[in-house]
Amino acid sequence: MKRxxxxxxxxxxxxxxxxRTAAILFGMxxxxxxxxxYAIRNEVSEVKTGILDMSHDTVTEALTDKLFSSGTFIFxxxxxxxxxxxxxxxxxxxxxxxxxxxxFAGRLQKDGVAQMQALTDGSDxxxxxxxxxxxxxxxxxxxxxxxxxxxxxxxxEAVPLMMFNPSLKSVYLFVPGLMAMILMLVSTxxxxxxxxxx
Length: 198
Fold this sequence. Notes:
Its main location: membrane. The chain has 198 residues and is an alpha/beta fold.
């Protein structure tokens, strides 16, 4: 035990005297944690969204305003026809296009159902699914706000509750595992430095 304590003391003295080793041991993990912790993200924001409104009524305008006031979507322009969708995606000007069918408000009032299509860039399937989910959430929130409470059927509604990371920030998801990886890397590096020094 005494030899082990003496060995630890000797290594500690080496680290204190050698500034480069101290920088590797203390500076590198902090720098990597800051860089990777905020560079690796999986949440989606500032989605460039285009609108193809073939109805031009108050409901589609309200849905469009609701979409862009959510803070996730950025207005990227209006499209005149479905032929403009593919070139907009190919040029990278839009990540999503929301299409409202003709007579949207009339169909919604008469039949209770109206077609709204969300087209996303599928080059990154994960981002595409997230963007589609965000769009659906905005539409459902709008319809829930506009619905008459007395006309809604009573039923069971599943409400998910996030016990950990309720804001769904990827920083809280990646940093704990990142800390373990950095510690493993630093431990291996310090071991190789100690062996080389001896």
